[in-house]
Amino acid sequence: MNKKNPVTVIAVIFVVIVLGATALGLSFQTPHQDDHDHSQETAASEYLHQHGEDQEQEYTCSMHPNFRSTDPNERCPICGMELIPVTTSAARDDDLTRIEFTGRSLALLDLQTYVVQRGSASAQLRMIGSLEFDERSLTAISAWTGGRIENLYVNFTGDYVEAGEPLVELYSPELYVAQQELLQAYNQAQRDAPGFLADSNQTTLRASRERLRLLGLTSTQIEKIIESGEASDRITIYAPTAGLVVTRNVSQGDYVNTGDTVLELADGDQLWAVFELFERDLQYIEVGQQLEFDLRASNERIEGVVESLGPRIDAERRTREVRVAISGSEHSLTAGSFVRALVNVEVDDVMTIPASAPLLTGDRAVVYVRVSEDSSEFEARNVEIGRKLGDSYEVLSGLAEGDHVVSRGAFRIDSELQLRGRPSMMAPQGGGAVGHDHGNGESAGSEQQVTHEQHQESAAPTGENLQLGDLPRHYFAMWDALHNDDLEAWQSAATDFYQFADTIRWPHNMHDLHAELSTGAGHAHHVDSLDRARELFQLHSQAMIALARADYLEVNAYLMFCPMAFDNQGAYWLQPDNRLLNPYFGGSMLRCGDRVESFEAGHDSHGGH
Q1: pLDDT digits over 187-239, tens only?
Q2: 195: buried, middle or exposed (CB in 10 Å: 19+, 13-18, 0-12)?
Q3: Which domains does the chain have, with CATH numbers?
Q4: What is the CB neighbour count within 10 angstroms for residue 270?
Q5: For the chain, which residues score pLDDT lower than 70?
Q6: How many of the other CB atoms lie within 10 Å of CB of 492?
Q7: Strand 594-599 to 557-562 pairing
């Protein structure tokens, strides 16, 4: 066998290495080339320089991010679009709680962070209620004996009576018999009799007086009967105190039984402001606390002291009554008026984060934390949150002082994790992007989960802008119907919502979102329960929130969250003003929930919209 020249062998090996490296997109430079411009390096070369030659650059479709390929020249098999490089991540494949963005991606996400700190926090607790008569000032006028109402001197509610004024004249045979017994006992007591018999007559007289007193006669009336010497089958009932007639249970000519309430009087100057306090806010209110509140009609400012708390929490509304005693004469107040109370709450030595930072779902709360101040890498953390303090949440565990928490844009990071099949708030166990089957075994990512960067790059085809028109108005009509517990109104609004959604020129990459908006289309009038209507509304809300976050609504909207909806799983919705009205519970718990975020009309973040 002929020996090959070692130099030749080395040269051949060198050529093979160079050719292999060229196929992988690598470039070799001599020491004299180190000063040359590197701007022409391929994306694959950059990736291998950063992560080693044992990893390959992956490419994906901006509209169908679940598709992966190592060939940059390949096109998406679903839509035919060119592929883009997958965002690099310094996190390991098994590090499922971290995600890193490129500089451009980070700029497009428009994130804001907040440095976690400990200190004092203040909040304003708002309660609504109404004015009611002080229960301690109510006086019931009852029939002390059975009979017929001969005369009713007060024959309408709202009438004002003075103390001692006649109210009712009652005909009673029983009363007539009792008066005759009184006169007989009196006459017998006036006769001369032996000592033991005289004592017995006096005892009988006292018993007759007591019987008449128990039948409702006053001492003065009893003496007048004795003076006149005549029994009467009628008795007049007088007002024991001054007050308003708040209840009238009889009419002239009615028969009543012993103990029946005929009228009820109330002192109009003694009122209670009765507020509804949610269970979660019980810690802020106690008996003896000073409150400020105002009338809705006149905005008159009133002060009062908490007199008592209701004995129990309402099982359906999950609220407890707070009663504040006030004087109606000082403010010309009327029972039944609506009132709003404002309670200032000060809490010391507490760690807080903005209310927009945590993503809430049921009992879970997830926040995204920047790994370091200048890093483009973020990690998800489960945190335990406590009280809502103004626009902040108390943090009980999961964060430390100095952490940089994402206060704006957390939903966008969560969506990106979902698209990559990582665990996220909405998909704790991870898994692929959710979408529809396109007939070739591939699944397209839901538009609701598309990140801010992907939306800007591919949400609308060239030369075409998405216009929602009156779609938000029809959505808000469904919300209005549900918080008013009006199924028929929801059916009408949902029908309009579906019909209008079909008239919109949806970009092809938003077909999944359109499908979510159309869930239940054609069957609105077959929905026979508010529970089913609310389930559909929750699906529609997810899609509308996605449109709001992508700045397509063109109207002001407020994002609300109810942690108790759907068996404590929690649910979000949009509404046109910031006065929270819960569509998932309606009248049973109308005020349950919190405001999470607001969207301003005309805020253009995707250009040309």
Answers
A1: 888 887 787 788 888 888 888 888 888 877 778 888 888 888 888 778 888 88
A2: exposed
A3: 1-41 (no CATH), 112-134+267-408 (2.40.30.170), 138-262 (2.40.50.100), 465-599 (no CATH)
A4: 18
A5: 1-56, 61-67, 78-81, 86-96, 108, 296-299, 328-332, 361-363, 415-465, 509, 602-609
A6: 17
A7: antiparallel
- The SS3 call for residue 133 is strand
Residue 417 Cα distances to 54, 154, 157, 364, 548, angstroms: 25, 73, 65, 17, 20
| pLDDT score, position 418 | 58
Task: Tell me the sheet residues that pair with 443.
Answer: 437
- Tally of CB atoms within 10 A around 466: 17
| 90/101 Cα distance (integer angstroms) | 10
Cβ neighbour number for residue 95 with a 10 Å cutoff: 12
Is residue 560 a contact partner of residue 596, using CB atoms and an 8 Å limit?
Answer: yes
For residue 79, count other CB atoms closer than 10 A to its CB: 17
Edge-to-edge order in the sheet of strand 255-256: 234-238, 166-171, 147-152, 255-256
Q: Is 115 helix (H, G, I), strand (E, B) or coil?
A: strand
Alpha helices in 409-563 (DSSP H): 410-419, 452-458, 471-483, 487-503, 511-517, 530-549
What does the block give as tokens for 56?
């390959």
Q: What is the pLDDT of residue 46?
A: 40
d(C-alpha 406, C-alpha 101), whole Å = 14
Q: 63-76 burial string, b = 16+ CB within 10 Å, else e?
A: bbbbbebeebeeeb
What pTM does this model have? Answer: 0.44
- SS in 3 state form for 346-413? EEEEEEEEECCCCEEECCEEEEEEECCCCCCEEEEEECEEEEEECCEEEEEECCCCCCEEEEECHHHH
Closest to 99 in 3D by CA, of 438, 412, 532, 510: 412
Segment 571-587, tens digit of pLDDT:
899 999 989 999 999 99
Q: According to the model, what pLDDT value does residue 2 have? A: 44
CA separation for the pair 582, 480 (Å, rounded): 9
What is the predicted pLDDT for the residue at 152? 87
Residue 566 φ/ψ region, left for φ over 0, alpha for ψ in the -120 to 50 degree band, beta for the rest: left
What DSSP string runs through 442-458? -BPPPGGG--HHHHHHH
Q: Which two tokens stand for residue 517?
A: 């908006």
| Three-state SS at 223 | helix
- Confidence (pLDDT) at 195: 75
Give the separation between CA 531 and CA 119, rounded to whole angstroms: 43
Task: Please name the residues in contact with 38: beta carbons below 8 A apart, sequence gap of 6 or more.
Answer: none
Which of these, 477, 434, 478, 483, lies nearest to 581 by C-alpha position? 483
Question: Do the beta carbons of residue 96 and residue 423 sit within 8 Å?
Answer: yes
Distance, CA of 4 to chain centre: 83
The pLDDT of residue 21 is 40
Place of tokens 């007002």: 239
Q: Between 487-503 and 471-483, two packed helices, what is the crossing angle to 10 degrees?
A: 170
| Spatial distance between the Cα atoms of 70 and 58, rounded to a whole number of angstroms | 5
